[in-house]
Amino acid sequence: MQMPSAPLRWLRLDETGSTNADAKHLVLQGELDCGVVQARLQRAGRGRLERRWESPVGGLYLSLVGPSPEPQVSPLWVTVAVGVALVEELAACCGVAAKLRWPNDLMVEGRKLAGMLSERVVGLDGKARVIVGIGLNDRTPVRLSDSDTETTCLSAESQQTYDDLAERLVPVLWRAWRELDEASPAILKDRWIAVSETIGETVCVRLMDNREIVGQAVDLAYDFGLVVYTETGPVTLREGDCRRLR
């Protein structure tokens, strides 16, 4: 995987529909190889399962675009690496003790601070890219429009905030992506589990067909599936909404 040392292009927008949609369009048109699309406001931000993510001014909305790490590791591990790096950097620069909730949320004591959405796209040159979208509640605790999850924002959790937060975070996230060449899935898995709020907990995972799987989250599979030990034995889930049961 050939990854430049820094984004080749950083597109900053005042307002857009969705940074992920913009990034995908640019990749498909051959106009973006490795870079960042950022907006102050999104009119049509998306979460998983096509949920609408409210994205007013006061949040951090950006999409990273880079080469897919195949065949070394699955593209899903880009999200793992970026998520772990985001948790670690927010702890280092802002003192926020966030945790990762499977599959793609950053939580602070049960409140959602940020979400990620990734997708694989093949460009005009036939090469695969991965787009990782990040929506982080910086100064406003926005939420998914159809979710009852409590939310929080960085300014509520930390006395240290930055006007240049994107400039601080992007190099760290970019470096984590580049290091996928050298990091094994086993190491990434251990790092994800170390900052997870899911593993070891009793959880309820609602699947797309509205079935609910209840059990103890015991492990992360190498395809990023969540291994849940239920009353009838272990199952590996690859999508769904996960919440801890208290």
Describe this structure in words.
- There is one protein chain.
- By secondary structure, the chain is an alpha+beta fold.
- 23% of the residues lie in helices and 36% in strands.
- Strands 1, 2, 3, 4, 5, 6, 7 and 8 form an eight-stranded mixed beta sheet that branches.
- α2 crosses α4 (165-178).
- The radius of gyration is 17 Å and the shape is globular.
Label this structure with key terms.
246 residues, single chain, alpha+beta, 8-stranded mixed sheet
Write the layout of secondary structure elements.
Layout: E1 9-16, H1 19-28, E2 35-46, E3 52-55, E4 60-67, H2 76-94, E5 99-101, E6 105-108, E7 111-122, E8 128-136, H3 154-157, H4 165-178, H5 185-194, E9 202-206, E10 212-220, E11 226-230, E12 233-237, E13 241-244
Parallel strand pairs: 1-2
Antiparallel strand pairs: 2-3, 2-4, 4-8, 5-6, 6-7, 7-8, 9-10, 9-13, 10-11, 11-12
Helix pairs in contact: 2-4, 2-5
Secondary structure tally, helices: 5
The arrangement of helices and strands along the chain is: EHEEEHEEEEHHHEEEEE
Q: Stretches where pLDDT falls below 50 for ≥5 residues? A: none
Main β-sheet, in a few words? 8 strands, mixed
Structural class: alpha+beta
Number of strands: 13
Instruction: Please bin the fraction of helical residues.
Output: 10-25%
Beta percentage is: 35-45%
Whole-angstrom Rg: 17 Å
Mean pLDDT comes to 89
**Basic shape:** globular
Distance between the termini: 42 Å
What's the gist of this structure?
The protein has 246 residues and is of the alpha+beta class.
